[in-house]
Design brief:
With 244 residues, this protein is α/β, with parallel strands linked by helices. It has one domain: Metallo-dependent phosphatases (Purple Acid Phosphatase, chain A, domain 2, 4-Layer Sandwich), CATH 3.60.21. One of its GO terms (molecular function) is bis(5'-nucleosyl)-tetraphosphatase (symmetrical) activity.
Length: 244
């Protein structure tokens, strides 16, 4: 049995189908999705439909992303929680348009799925899977403000900034980077640092390779670190802009 982790999908169902086909997934393999299933490309409802059915066929772990929470608020009519102008600029408009012809029954199924998402997953090898990060120096169980699990960027910024020569025993070594053996995140595309493949800094693996923008979707074997990528999303959706 293998364990795979998948980066941010952002409505790109075609990319998800490509990477799953490439790994030739066994029904006993576990798929861990790091969140942000929606907002960007035109198939957000179809992505949720696919994931809902996929979990009936094999073990799946679905982490909550910030865009998933925004969609849930919109579907529930919690508009006070949404800056609609800002959301639309970051992929929400494509999602709202894609829901125009979605019936009430399907919307309710999506609501229940979005409510079921996990804030994080910690496996038996002390590996943390989380959309964005956490800020408490004692770990996720002690986080006071839970939305940081899917909004934080400081964990990744800290991992990027740390001197690779700094010993873990140094008094200045960030405590957050000592708690877990490995941390797998999405949320902040590695394309922001001019990378196109998963990036490892300290104990953090960033698997968001920019599928919402001009990048590709990535799936990675958690143990071996072998990874597979889709075509670039603008090539799969040539008549759309995504979040570009």
């Amino acid at each position: 049995m293998k364990k795979f982790v998948i980066g941010d999908i952002h409505g790109g169902l075609k990319a998800l189908l490509q990477v799953l086909k490439k790994i030739n997934c066994d029904e006993n393999d576990t798929l861990i999705f790091l969140g942000d299933y929606v907002d960007g490309w035109s198939e957000s409802p179809a992505v949720l439909d696919f994931l809902i059915e996929l979990q009936k066929k094999q073990p799946c772990i679905f982490i909550r992303g910030n865009h998933d929470e925004l969609l849930l608020d919109w579907l529930l009519g919690n508009n006070d929680n949404i800056d609609e102008k800002l959301w639309f600029q970051h992929g929400g408009e494509a999602t709202v348009l894609s829901y125009q012809n979605i019936n009430a029954e399907t919307k309710e199924r999506h609501i229940q799925f979005l409510k079921s998402l996990q804030d994080y997953h910690l496996d038996d090898k002390n590996r943390l899977f989380i959309h964005a990060g956490f800020t408490n120096m004692k770990g996720v169980e002690h986080e006071f403000f839970k939305p940081l699990f899917y909004w934080d960027r400081t964990l990744w910024e800290t991992a990027l900034a740390i001197d690779s020569q700094l010993s873990k025993d140094a008094i200045t070594y960030p405590l957050r980077l000592k708690i877990y053996n490995e941390i797998f995140i999405g949320h902040t595309p590695v394309t922001k640092i001019d990378e196109t493949i998963p990036v490892n800094k300290a104990c953090v693996w960033n698997v968001d390779t920019g599928a919402a923008f001009k990048g590709k979707l990535t799936i990675m074997d958690v143990d071996s670190k072998e990874f597979w990528q889709s075509d670039s999303l603008p090539d799969l959706y040539p008549n759309e802009k995504g979040r570009n």
